[in-house]
Design brief:
Strand content: under 5%
Distance between the termini: 14 Å
Subcellular location: Cell membrane
Family: Belongs to the drug/metabolite transporter (DMT) superfamily. Small multidrug resistance (SMR) (TC 2.A.7.1) family. Gdx/SugE subfamily.
Shape: flat
Number of helices: 4
Number of domains: 1
Order of helices and strands: HHHH
Membrane topology: Multi-pass membrane protein
Structural class: mainly alpha
Protein name: Guanidinium exporter
Number of strands: 0
GO cellular component, one term: plasma membrane
Radius of gyration: 14 Å
Helix content: over 70%
């Protein structure tokens, strides 16, 4: 169950970043508040997952899920670069997440 909480925490973190991007530097209050709310929920889920998961593993996976997800959103929604090097680096983060999950 704690692995599921950790996955959810990472997914909510993606939503947080998307909302903060939409907040346009805090000039749009609704997305800004949604971003702050998502941050609180993400951290609460991470905290719950830490009941049984090692902190280093959980934190690395949480940030990795966020990094990969935000990168994918950036590529798909904001037409950010999908260069081979960028995708290879994201692939290494993904490989690290899988390795940590298999180890832990």
């Amino acid at each position: 169950m704690d692995w599921i909480l950790l996955l959810l925490a990472g997914l909510v973190e993606i939503g947080m970043a998307f909302a903060l991007k939409a907040a346009a530097g805090w000039t749009r209050p609704v997305p800004a508040l949604l971003g702050l709310g998502a941050a609180i929920v993400s951290i609460a889920l991470l905290t719950a997952a830490l009941r049984s998961l090692p902190i280093g593993t959980a934190y690395a996976i949480w940030t990795g899920i966020g990094a990969i997800g935000v990168t994918v959103v950036g590529i798909v929604v904001f037409q950010e670069s999908a260069s081979p090097l960028r995708l290879a680096c994201i692939g290494m983060i993904f490989a690290g997440i899988i390795g940590l999950k298999l180890q832990g």
